[in-house]
Amino acid sequence: MADVFTVLAEDHTEVRRMLDELEAGPTKATGAGEDALVQRRKVVQRLITEESKHEAVEEEYFWPAVRELVPEGDRMADHAVAQEQSAKQVLDDLIAVHAWQDRFEELLADFIADAREHIAYEEEQVWPRLRAVMTAERAKELGRKVEAGKRRAPTRPHPNTPPRPGVLKAAGPMVAAADRMLDKISGRDRG
Ligand SMILES: [Fe+2]
Ligand SMILES: [Fe+2]
C-alpha cells in the first residue's frame, strides 16, 4: 500500500509531464495549426481536472496533518494553501479562454511558473519536515484517504470555495457530482 508521499508524488509527476508538454508547444505564436491548438486545449483541460482533484484532497487531508504534526506547520500550510488558491483562480480563468487567444498563453505561463514553485515548495520544504514526524503507519493511512478522496473530488477549481477541510467535506460530494455532470455534458470527460 502506497503512503501519502508516494500517492502525491505520482500526481506531481503527471502534472509536471503536462507542464513540460505545454512548455514545449507549439503555441499560436510559434505556428501551431488548428489541430495542435485543439490538442493544447485538451491538455489544459486534463491539467485543470488533475490539479482540481489533487489540491482538493490536499486541503481535505494533507494540510490538516501538516498543521497537526509539523512544528511551524500552520505557517507552511497557510503559505501553500495561498499558492493553491491563486493557482485555482488562474485555472478558473483559463476554462473560458480558447488556445488561439493571446490571453490563453498569458494565463498558462503564469500557471506553469506558479505550479512549479508550489510543487517544489511541497516536495522540498514540507515533505521532509512531515516525514520526520509522521509514523509510517499514519503515512499509509493518509495515502489511503487521499486516494479514496480523489475518486469523489471536484474536477473543477472552485476558487471561491474556502479551502478549509470541513467546508470541502460538506460541499465536496455535491460539487464533485455537479462537476462530473458538466464534464459529461461538455464532453470533457472524453477529452
Ligand atoms: Fe498543493
Ligand atoms: Fe501537491
Written account of the structure:
The protein is mainly alpha-helical and 191 residues long. The chain has one domain: Four Helix Bundle (Hemerythrin (Met), subunit A) (Up-down Bundle). It is built from 6 helices and no strands. The chain has helices spanning 4-24, 34-69, 73-95, 102-133, 136-151, 165-186. Helix 1 (4-24) runs antiparallel to helix 4, helix 1 (4-24) packs across helix 5 (136-151) and helix 2 runs antiparallel to helix 3 (73-95). The longest helix is centred in the first third of the chain and has 36 residues, at 34-69. The radius of gyration is 17 Å and the shape is globular. The mean pLDDT is 92. Bound molecules: fe (ii) ion (2 copies). The site of one fe (ii) ion (FE2) has 6 residues, from helix 2, helix 3 and helix 4.
Calculate the terminal CA-CA distance, rounded to whole Å.
Answer: 30 Å
Ligands (ions, cofactors included): fe (ii) ion
CATH class: Mainly Alpha
The CATH topology is: Four Helix Bundle (Hemerythrin (Met), subunit A)
Order of helices and strands: HHHHHH
Oligomer, anyone?
single chain
Indicate the mean pLDDT: 92
Structural class designation: mainly alpha
Share in helix: over 70%
Give Rg in angstroms: 17 Å
Largest sheet, described in full? none
Total tally of structural domains: 1
- Unreliable runs: none
- Can you tell me the CATH architecture? Up-down Bundle
DSSP E strands, number: 0
Number of helices: 6
Share of residues in strands: under 5%
